[in-house]
Amino acid sequence: MLLAAWSATAAAGAEGVPAPDDDPFYAAPAGLESNADGTVLNSRPISVLGLNLPVAGWQLQYRSTDSTGAAVADVATVMTPLLPWFGPGGRPLLSYQVAEDSLGTRCAPSFALRGGRDISIINTALDIPFLTAMLLRGWAVVVSDYEGPESRFFDGVNSGRGVLDGVRAARSFPPAGVTADSPIGAWGYSGGAFATLWAMQQRADYAPELWFSGVAAGGVPANIAAISRRVDGGVQAGLAVLMIAAFARIDPGSGIAEDLNDNGRDMLARESAACGADMVLRHLNRHLDEYSDTPNLLWHPQFQAATERQELGAVAPDVPLYLYHSTADDVIPVEGFSALVDRYCALGANITAVHSGIPGHNPAAAVESLGAMNYLGDRFAGLPAPTGC
After folding, report:
1. Average pLDDT in the 91-103 region?
2. Where do the CATH 3.40.50.1820 domains begin and end in the chain?
3. Is the dihedral of CA 217, 233, 255, 146 positive or negative?
4. What is the pLDDT of residues 11-36, one digit of tens each?
C-alpha cells in the first residue's frame, strides 16, 4: 500500500507542498491559550504522501503545552484505512512517533506525510514500512509533530505532552473513525521511543483520561551522554553535534552555549533549522571538541547535567510495555537500555523486554518490528498483557 506507492513515485511527490514555516496552516491562531490541551484548532484533508492511496488522511492543528508552560499549536497527521473495521470493539488508534530528530519544522513528519520531498523527509520515509503494516491491520494511526513549533529535540516533557495531546485531538476528530470503545496504543523507535516513553511517564498526571492498552518502544535513547560519546568522531558524529545544539536551545541555563568557541557558535547559527540527516552528512567523523575550547566537552559536568534532566526513568509508566534493543546497537549503547528496564521494573512496571541479537540500530528496528506489532495487536484484541518483568 504505502510502501509500494512510495517506491514507485519517490521522485515525484506532491507539487508545491510548502515547508511548515511557509504554510499558514501551522500558524498559531489568536486565542490559543483559551483552549484546552488537545483541542483541535484547525483541520484539513490530505492525500497521504501526496499520492492516491486507499487511506483517508487529515492534518490536525491542536493545542498543547510545552515544557516551559506556554501554549503551543502542534500538528498531527491522522490516517485511517478506507476498509471497514471488523475486529472487536472500535477501530484501534495507534500513536506512532517518528524519530523527528530535528532543529527545524521542515523535518517534522507532517511535511513528509503530506508529500514534501527533500532530505528532511528521510526519517519519516524510513518508517513507511511500519506505517503500511499498521494500516493493513486496519488500525487508525496518528503521527504527531511532537517536538512542536520550536523543534525542541530531546525535550522530554515537551515531546510527551505533544504525543498525548495528539492522541486527544485524534480521538475527538469524528472523521478518523475512532470511537469511545477504540483501544489506544503507542509505538516509537529511537527518537520516537524517547517521545513515546516520556508520554507514558506523564500520562497519569497529564492525560489521565487516556488509557493505553499497550505500548512498544525500541532502540531507546537512555544515557544520552553515552550516546553522544559513542558517535563522536565517527560516521554518526552529526548526532552528537545535534545534541549539543539541541541542549543549547532547550536548556539555555545549562552553560553549554558558553562553552563553545567561535567555530561552535557559528555551528549553532548555521544549523539552527537543520535535520539530523543534514547534520550527519555535514559533520562526518567530526569531534565535538572542535567546537569548544573546553576539553572533553561531552564529559563536562554542564553537558552531563543537561542530559540527565532529560533522562527517562524517574517515573515508571503504568501501562503495559514492550521494550526492545539490540545488544550490538552501533548508535545507542545497550547498557543504558538495560539500566532503564531495571529501573522501571524496580518501580513496578509491567514490561516484556527483548535484548535482541540483531546487530545494529537500523537492522534491529526492521527485524524486531514484527514482535512489537504483534504485541500491540494482542493488546488491541483484548488479550491480557504479561505482568511483571
Report:
1. 97
2. 2-222+317-380
3. negative
4. 444 558 999 999 999 999 999 999 99
Residue pLDDT, tens place only, 183-213: 999 999 999 999 999 999 999 999 999 999 9
CATH fold of 2-222+317-380: Rossmann fold (3.40.50)
Determine how β-strand 71-81 pairs with β-strand 93-97. unpaired
Q: How far is the C-alpha of 144 from the C-alpha of 161, rounded, in Å?
A: 10
For 59, how many CA atoms within 13 A lie in the half-sphere containing its CB?
24
| CATH annotation of 231-308 | 1.10.260.130
Instruction: State the burial class of residue 37 (Cβ atoms within 10 Å of its Cβ: 0-12, 13-18, 19+).
Output: middle
